[in-house]
Amino acid sequence: MESNETNYGEDANNSQSESDIKDPAKLAESLIKEAITKCIDPVTNCDLVSLGMVDTVDVHMGVAEVEILVPCQVEAYSNTKELEQIITTSLIDTGMVGQVKFKYSPMTEAEKDDFILQLETAYRGKNQLKDSTRIIAISSGKGGVGKSSVSTNIAIALSLMGYRVGLLDADVYGFSIPNMLGPGAEPIVVGNSVIPARAHKINFVSAGLFADDDQPIIWRGPMLHKALEQFLANVMWCEPDFLVVDMPPGTGDVALSIASLIPDAEFYVVTTPQKSAESVAQRSAIAARQLKLPLRGVIENMSFFEGDDGKKYELFGAGGGRQLADHLGVKLLGQIPLIPDLRTGSDIGTPITISNPSSAASTEFGKIADAIVQLGPAKKRLQALKVR
Ligand SMILES: Nc1ncnc2c1ncn2[C@@H]1O[C@H](COP(=O)(O)OP(=O)(O)OP(=O)(O)O)[C@@H](O)[C@H]1O
Ligand SMILES: [Mg+2]
Questions:
Q1: How far apart are CA 168 and CA 162, in angstroms?
Q2: Quick one: which ligand is closest to 343's CA?
Q3: Which of 44, 18, 10, 2 has its CA nearest to residue 238?
Q4: pTM of the entire structure?
Q5: Which segment of 163-177, 211-225, 279-293 scores lowest on mean pLDDT?
């Protein structure tokens, strides 16, 4: 019976020698080695073998058993599905394997240190927002207008366009991103470093991932600043193209912190079509301007409801988004309809851009994401960046 075990923990050198090519068993082994070396960890965007996450691959009668090492307790590792999909596709594509089974083990402390070292080497240190990472802060002076729903769906829309996207829930007291993206995703804490949680191909971090649901967070201003600083500096964001930041309602401490930590964060204001909402929503824009943060656009949410009769009902009035955009001298990037599925999707952790990509709301989120890409990065200002 043919059986091959390759130990990656000891030997990550995968070159294919001439003698391998002549021997079918050796050829199979080297093809499998090559395939596994090409597998990229979706969270960190580094290859699994370099990260020390592949221990052994044992192939027996066309069935591959892959032993994965994770930098946390096995039960706490929540990213198995995407990882298994990547490895399975890669191994089956060799034509040498018909089925792939997985076994997980925790890394030793020394292996965890190596894992972090690999990441720090790959990304030149801890601070992992690259110069070209665009920070998209979704804000509004008004609560409940849909900032978190817009942040989540725009993050997904950008990711569907092929960008690597991080989502930072800066609403430290009123976090909602973990629920919206789906409970169950966990970050990994190794020493002082945090590997983001991941859901729907988005890396994200939220105070909600570190707090018990029923415990109120009572951090004051300086602690809030510290928390945001840690979210930016200690989290291994692994150089995303976009970091979407879900801002809390209002114009307070978080905007100040963002302004001092990432002065080139781009501000986008969410409002509803109501005229009265527009005047409250714009306060966050005015605060952003006072803090010299680039204000890039307005997004109108809950613009209309389309009945079964095809008629559009403007339940919250009309014109608020356009008026605010004109007032601020920026573009109105889109008008998202009121869709019951958008709310239920948020409640069950499956955003509408995932559950129904062809819905009117998803199309509009795609259009807004595209408009953000088209806007290009804001002009850099000469200011000491604290976290990158
Ligand atoms: N276009 C929409 N259609 C239907 N429901 C929506 C829409 N946008 C948002 N909602 C729902 O409205 C509620 C408030 O939305 P969300 O939490 O995104 O607002 P927010 O501005 O982040 O609130 P907060 O100020 O509390 O942070 C949620 O239940 C959400 O599912
Ligand atoms: Mg919110």
A1: 19
A2: 1
A3: 44
A4: 0.90
A5: 211-225
CATH number at residue 43: 3.30.300.130
Tokens linked to 12: 């990550």
CA distances from 7 to 29, 56, 95, 103, 353 (A): 11, 4, 21, 14, 41
Residue 321: inside a domain: yes
Please tell me which residue, 52 or 281, carries the higher pLDDT value: 52
380 falls within a domain: no
pLDDT tens digits, one per residue of 55-65: 999 888 889 99
Gap from CA of 149 to ligand 1 centroid (Å): 6
Nearest CA owner, ligand 1 atom 31: 343
**Residue 297 CA from chain centroid, whole number:** 21
Q: How many helices (H) and strands (E) does the chain have?
A: 13, 16
Predicted local confidence at residue 384, as pLDDT: 46
User: What residues contact 291, with CB distance under 8 A and at least 6 apart?
Assistant: 255, 256, 259
**346 touches ligand 1 (CB under 6 Å):** yes
The protein residue whose alpha carbon is closest to atom 28 in ligand 1 is: 343
pLDDT value of position 1: 42
Q: Using CA atoms in the order 370, 242, 348, 138, what is the torsion angle rounded to 10 degrees?
A: -80
Expressed in angstroms and rounded, the spacing between residue 176 Cα and the centre of ligand 2 is 6
Return the best residue to mutate from 138, 139, 142, 148 for the ligand 1 pocket (most ligand atoms within 8 A of CB): 148
| 65 CA → ligand 2 middle, Å | 43
| 116 and 138 part of one domain | no
The response to whether residue 338 sits with its C-beta less than 6 Å from ligand 1 reads yes
Could you give phi then psi for residue 212, rounded to 5 degrees? Answer: -70, 140
Whether 128 is in a domain gets the answer no
